[in-house]
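Supplementary Note 2. Why include the ligand at all?

Several targets in our set were suspected to adopt different conformations when bound, so apo predictions alone were not considered sufficient. For every target with a known small-molecule partner we therefore ran a joint prediction. The input for adenosine-5'-diphosphate is given below.
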Amino acid sequence: MIHVDDLRFTYPGSDAPTLHGLGFEVHEGEIFGFLGPSGAGKSTTQNILIGLLRGWQGSIQVLDKALASWGRDYYGHIGVSFELPNHYLKLTARENLEYFRALYQHDTASSEEVMALVGLAGELDKPVAAFSKGMKNRLTLARSLLSRPTLWFLDEPTAGLDPVNAVKVRELVKARRAQGVTTLITTHDMLVADDLCDRVAFIVDGTLVECDAPESLKRRYGKREIVVQYGPEDSPNNARFPLDGVGEQTEFLRILREEPLLSVHSQETTLEDVFVQVTGRSLR
Ligand code: ADP
Ligand code: MG
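The joint prediction is reproduced in token form.
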């Protein structure tokens, strides 16, 4: 769906490049995530891919065509959700959506349809000023679905949302995947990357450092350990053993046989641990 090679970009008037030769592929039907701290270049990359920023170098193929050779019809195939909700607050949700629908040359989904997709079916005729933050966010997603996109770009779709609304957004993105939509999502939220993305690219300082499925990254970089706590409760001992081959660890077996056990835990690596280990940077 997307094929990017050696993508470089410098903002006009800036002395230093923002993107230093990114390369990645997004496959049909997957949710592909850009994970990186603030300022890494995620939004810049998205804005290049949606045709908003020009003057980049490298090669970009989208939907089997060079990005540069797409005309305005490109916007009939993609859906874009920007990081900050930008709605006309005095207008209702329906009026906002109808305004954007009128910009499309081709058939679009109806306002009712997209509002139902984001769980806001009953809120069409409320002024957006009366919407909560989570509702405004979902209205942004609804608008991005008007074009019935095959390729969906989401910039930090859960930023600033409470956990309940963040889960709703994640479920919504998964439901679109089940319908065959390909999604490129930028996030600095570990949960989004881990729960939602089929593959994740780590991006730091305009450089792509790693790219793989979250499970593979954890397997490749993770330390799988067993932590055993034993001895008296007021001054317990902790011992750690690599999970692989733990059955051959004589000390582990001795503790199990001879010591009063307090707890035994297997320690799984999180995607955040892997990110820190691979990039040497924190996500916050
Ligand atoms: P992210 O989305 O990963 O947080 P951005 O792509 O927004 O990062 O920004 C990457 C870098 O580019 C940052 O250093 C930011 O300051 C810079 N940048 C973003 N927008 C502009 C702009 N319009 N002009 C100049 N520099 C910019
Ligand atoms: Mg951003």
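The pocket of adenosine-5'-diphosphate (ligand 1) is lined by residues 11, 14, 18, 36, 38-44 (CB under 6 Å). The two ends are 30 Å apart (CA to CA). Comparable summaries for the other entries are listed in the accompanying table.
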